[in-house]
Amino acid sequence: MSEANAEPGMNWDLSAFFPEFNGPDMKVFKASLREDVKSLLESAGGLDALCPENAVEWEEIFLRSEETLSRLVHLGSYVGCLTAADAGNEDYMKEEGNLALLSAEFSKLEVELLRSLKQIPDDVFESFCQRESLAGAKHFLSRTRIESKFTMSAELEALRADLGVDGIEAWGRLYDTVSGKLEFDMVYPDGKKERLPISQRRSLMENSDRDTRRAAFLGGNAAWETVEDVAASALNAISGTRLTLNGYRQVPHFLEVALFQSAITKKTLDAMFEAIFSEIELARSILKYKAGAMGIDRISWYDMGAPLPFPDLDPISWEDGKALVQIAFERSYPNLGRFTQSIYDKLWIDWEPRSGKRPGGFCTSSMEIGESRIFMTFNDTMGDVLTLAHEAGHAFHSFTLKEERAYSRLYPMTLAESASTFGEMILADGVIADADTEDVQKAMILDMEVSHGAVYLMDIPVRFKFEEAMYEERSSGELSVSRLKELMAETQREVFGDVLDEGGEDPYFWASKLHFYITGATFYNFPYTFGFLLSRGLFARFKSEGPDFLPRYEEFLRLTGNDTAENVAMRSIGCNLEAPDFWVEAIRSMGQPLTELQELVPRVLPKDGEAVS
Ligand SMILES: [Zn+2]
């Protein structure tokens, strides 16, 4: 095997994707991909819905579409890596535009696949799934068939797609434009005044100084007030369009779409929320404890993202950060440790802080070459080390799926974060168990862990409850600005209870949270809580059963694209996601890090302005 070589100006080796950007190999690859999508569309367009007479032709189209999908993902993954690592490069941007056009063409092919299975008899469908070449694709085909039942006629769907550009999607774009231009007046505690883009508000609301957080909160909401009518119109139009389409598509309830996208049943969703609300005192006690440590009785909305005021830590170098992750993995999960060492050796990570890099982190994978790449910016903090463990977990998930066909690698958002959160938990557990770790570092990790828990168990349930109530009300008319504010504040009171200060609600959260305005996915929030709790449940089992659990964990990952979430959990680890017990256990696992944090804090927090040495 040849030595790994980084791309010029970047840390990762992308040569397994293409030897050079827009070199001869890549040009041939793109041309044949375009040609194949075009010819597939032509062939599919000439066929009636699936019947015994045309089953051979449709089989061929499904197989070639699968193979085309894999190549499209390969190209998308490569271009995504380049644009993230060098955001200002116009050649990469242009390529991203070409790719969007090609993806739009491919989505027309997906419409044809839906059409092929719409209203066909069960026996025709079953015998199609029995074809040898489609072994292992039954889950994908069944989902396509269910989706086809809730589509309108081809003409109406085409009209919807065209009108959507100037309708629901235009409302989403309007929100993005208005929020992108929005500025607020930040009045710092020392009296200094500054006009800032609203995008900077979030980090100010995570400042360890409470007056700074409050000023950002108040200044930000004064700015949202100036655009409240635009935001309310967008929210009413987006939800109204969805409800109307649901009616035409004969979708029985607005939550059905989200349940289908998440590959879960209503019973599972209800079980999770039942557990969250029966155990809500644990989540509230996290915030009560943090309030006490900050010297206040109750929190306001702007205190939720506040860290405890720990003294500054020494920076962690990239080499040390890598070693922390690898050693923690190796110790408790040797397969994951070996895998992680191999991705370091093969240069799969772009980590260096450089100007022109996009913010955030991701892991992207190509089914064509069975490899992943990790994008992140390592700024020498413990949070960045956790990000590395998170993204390495995603890469390991893809690695377990390597032998699966493309159609059984398409896992839902609810199962997407299991491996990454599992990786984070192994790292946190390892660092905390290590005798060499300083107390303050341990406390910081525990604070991050319990604070994440509070977001997943309180903030996200607020978003879900609000959205659910809003859709109920929207079905009989538009909601006014004052009703939206009232509903949001009421929901916050209900979930947070007495831990939230009187008047500490955020009545404009429906306007400032962009997740409500994502037009491509409905109820975008709860899958995060689902994934967080599911991986905590998995980790709790690993802790109690030890290494014997790991083969079943890998089976869980391998099945994620092959079945519903309930069946994946039942088939691999024997858990019943439709019963609240599983979720209760996962939530109660938050108790231990909270107790540990409470024990550590008196030893590490500066008291009365004096740092503890
Ligand atoms: Zn992730």
Description of the molecule:
- The model is unreliable at 608-613 (pLDDT under 50).
- The chain is mainly alpha-helical.
- The longest helix is centred in the C-terminal third of the chain and has 36 residues, at 439-474.
- A hairpin with a 4-residue loop joins strand 4 (362-366) and strand 5 (371-375).
- 63% of the residues lie in helices and 4% in strands.
- The chain has a domain at 24-150: Butyryl-CoA Dehydrogenase, subunit A, domain 3 (Up-down Bundle).
- It is globular, with a radius of gyration of 25 Å.
- It has helices at residues 24-45, 55-85, 90-117, 122-129, 138-149, 154-166, 168-181, 201-204, 210-226, 228-248, 255-262, 266-278, 280-293, 318-332, 334-345, 382-400, 413-416, 418-433, 439-474, 481-496, 509-512, 526-545, 550-559, 565-573, 580-588, 591-604; strands spanning 183-187, 193-197, 349-350, 362-366, 371-375.
- The strands form 2 sheets. Strands 3-5-4 form a 3-stranded mixed sheet, sandwiched between helices. A two-stranded antiparallel sheet has the order 1-2.
- The site of zinc ion (ZN) has 4 residues, from helix 16.
- Residues 390, 394, 417, 420 line the site of zinc ion (ZN).
